[in-house]
Amino acid sequence: MKKFELNKSNWAETEGWLSIAGNIVLFILKYWAGLVTGSIAIIADAWHTLSDSLSSVIVLIGAKISKKPADEDHPFGHGRADLISAFIIGILLLLVAFDFVIESYHTLRDGESSQFGTIAIVVMIISIVVKEALAQFAFYGARKTNSKVLKADGWHHRSDAISSFVILAGIFVGKYFWWVDGALGMIVAFMIGYAAYEIIRDSIHSILGESPDQKLLDDLKKTCEEIYPHAINPHHFHVHSYGDHTEVTFHIKLPHDMSIKTGHDISTEIEKEIKRKYGFAATIHVEPRDHV
Fold first, then answer.
1. What range does the domain containing 94 cover?
2. For a 10 Å CB count at each end of the chain, is N or C smaller?
3. How many domains does the chain have?
4. Measured between alpha carbons, how far is 176 from 39 in angstroms, rounded to an integer?
């Protein structure tokens, strides 16, 4: 029987369905609590939770697309659907934050207040526990698979947990200050906006192409030296990530009088070792060196 492994796509699908189920239940609870108490902050937090469900749908769609094999139009596969999904989630978060700023401003301008009670306290505590659990699951999957869309969805959950915590703290002082509800809504909006900014920034950087991590470069150079323990000076590294598929290209220097076959054999051995150790598809360009 074939062993089931949670790769990047499987993690995304599992996390996506768990998120949708949990978020729909929490949305119903929060929205009900918001209507009962008349709290704009709780209602805003409820819609934030529902937006998490939409982001989870995007996670599922991205996971399905990223699983498609390479084809003529996409020779390196469809793995970057993961990054596009993360970018879309960031945009959705930004829109949610903007809407909450407007709603909170109207609440403060009109001098509206809310009457919090036991219902609001219980619902907020449940929300904090559930959302942080979903965030931890998403972050764990992101660490295991290096998935930016799982990390983005994890921050979506975390921002919801934090906003619920802020509202919970505000409930205990809301009876003393009429403006607490509107102020909390504003704070929640800015927290969501900042999380959106980080998600959008990270996904754009990855889509445009990032410089390789220095530790990775050091490890790759060490691998080259293990195969050919001479001064081959690995340089001009380029690392291109396509989800589960990563392409690495770089240059090495070999003696100018070395035969083409020997140079080819050395390059091939290095490429095989990089594939074995890191799972990367490596392409090496050989340059002549005047002295051994």
1. 8-208
2. N
3. 2
4. 15
Give all strands (DSSP E) within 127-280, no chain letters.
Answer: 235-242, 245-255
- 181 plus 220 within the same structural domain: no
Separation in Å, CA 230 to CA 224, 226, 234, 261: 9, 9, 11, 18
For the domain that residue 155 is a member of, what is the CATH number? 1.20.1510.10
Residue 28 is assigned to a structural domain of this protein: yes
**Which tokens belong to 39?**
């709290």
How many angstroms separate the CA atoms of 67 and 7, rounded? 10
Expressed in angstroms, the distance from the first to the final Cα of the chain is: 53
Going 253 to 259 to 261 to 266, the CA torsion angle's sign is negative
- At 185-241, the pLDDT tens digits run 788 778 778 878 877 887 777 666 556 677 878 888 888 888 887 778 888 887 777
Domain boundary among 158, 190, 208: 208
Residue bearing tokens 């090495």 = 252
Domain-located, residue 2? no
Q: Are 156 and 47 in contact (CB under 8 A)?
A: no
Among candidate residues 208, 227, 252, the one where a domain is terminated: 208
Q: Which two tokens stand for residue 240?
A: 């291109």
Please state, in angstroms and rounded to a whole number, the distance separating the CA atoms of residues 235 and 221. 8
